[in-house]
Request: fold
Amino acid sequence: MSKYIFKRLLIVIPTMLAVILIVFLLMNLTPSDPASVILGPNATQEAKDKLNQEFGYDKPVLVRYFDYVVNLVQGDMGTTYTTSRSVFTEVTMRFPTTLKLAAIGITLAVVLGVPLGIVAAVKQYSIFDIIGTATSMFMASVPGFWLGLMLILLFALKLGILPSYGNATWVHYILPSVTLALPVAASILRMTRTTMLESIRQDFVRTARAKGQIERKVIFKHALHNALLPVVTVAGTEFGFLLGGAVVIEQVFSINGVGKLLLEGIRMKDVPLVTGCAVFICFLFMIVMLLVDILYAYIDPRIRDRYTRA
Amino acid sequence: MAELTQTQELRENQDVLLEINNLTVVYKSDEEIVHAVNGISFQVGVKETIGLVGETGAGKTTTALSIMRLLPERTGFIEGGEILYNGMDLVTKPQNEMRMIRGSLISMIFQDPMTSLNPIMTVGDQIYESLEIHNTDNKTRQQLDERVNELLTLVGIQPRRKKEFPHQFSGGMKQRIVIAIALACEPQLLIADEPTTALDVTIQAQVLDLMRELKEKLDTSMIMITHDLGVVAETCDKVAIMYAGEIVERGSVEDIFEGKQHHPYTEGLFGAIPNLEEETDRLSPIDGLMPNPTDLPSGCKFHPRCKYCMDICREQVPPVYLEDGHMIACHLVVKED
Reply:
């Protein structure tokens, strides 16, 4: 098992190198340069060149990429172009906000999605199933920013019971985390329903009933436990995405998270900042995925066997 | 009238454990009604093994699931008849009382051991679960654990393997575990739904031997569902041949294998078995297919495939011919009489 985890951690290195390369190439493809953005349209070419040279932006993209990787290995994520602060500090300063948002969001989504999914499957074709499935379809297709704006309209403007922006107190987290959670809850609901429907038709569930087991235990102990893997995958992946900063939602609710930072970086052509965010997000995502895989092994002994044999 | 005499006869000779009278089961969906079991009757005596034989779709498994009351909730319905277990009707029993009967008094072994065990529970826990549900005399955890070891030994698996998961066992071993689960509470009636169909021939023999041995040891009655006449010859006391949801012939193993008169369908089944002594180029299967259960033929349900089919067969449901407990439902036999 530990061998498997070690192998998985090794894969992080090439993935990271590829991600950084892609970020550098993409940033290079976009027009303009950092100095022009920072100094504005009225600056002289001379001043711009000088500033770009200071940033090291005058060098070819692959050279900059190589320099960046060498620095990163030494633990240096560089300084931002715009604020001249350490990228590491910028990102870690914003991260707790994003983490809080993601954690509340995913918890809400699981708490809503899994039980409703179970009910929809166990009472298939009932009113619970129809309402659940229809609502989840709607939630999954609605764009996050629209949902966020509608919630602001209702709860902040009309009812005036919740704040519409910022992240000063826990009350500020309600609207954004609900906005994040609803679409995720919808996909968790649909996944739970599908896998539960499959699971409750399995022979071993019938065996459990033939033993005389009570229906509640048949559903939770036998059917649900076997239906969990895909649900864990969806929840894990979604959590990974949320950790990457809900770029749009943070924008809508003016929350200073990693997502908003990333967006500012892109607008300012702040290559070290954008790359720093990307490295950070990518690393977290891969750690979450690794945790999901370890959770698999915990849930399913067949997978546990495969890991130990590999 | 004939039915009645047989029942009386049986009651005098032997105690009846299970008596099914005129059982009718349908599967309903929005589009159609499937007539799976159409008014069958048979009895199982104490310590007796009865074989239910027939092609796929003859209604054997449906009969078994009806006895267990495990028909699919939304689609399967018992439309009529009674299932008397020790005199009490299981058809009208509420589910919570039925739950106490399942696994303790009546157990079932399912067809496919690969899928009938929970893949993420240790086999020991799965046997333990069965004991725990029906632990009416408050045995301690330790006592139940010992019983698990005992059961595993009984079916020929080393108790130290109880911490392993189903995927670590072979098919035959898994079926042994399924048997251990079914026998955990020493049921009076064991329903075995094609217990050896999914297994290799050599393993089949082992599992059948084991079942027979345990049945003797525990004095269990058994309903053996199969389409394999070899299995019937080896394990059963009585046989009921099912076709399109009806019992077309019923009798002792001797009646079915050596009797002079048979239902044409039974004849057809035997004709489809390869014979080691006679040299024949081809087997003689029964022509045609089982009728569509949503649209059964009139009269005798076998008439479209019967080589002795007469006019009367198309119009009238055949009467029951009964001699010394050997029952045949066919116009032909009655006519010859």
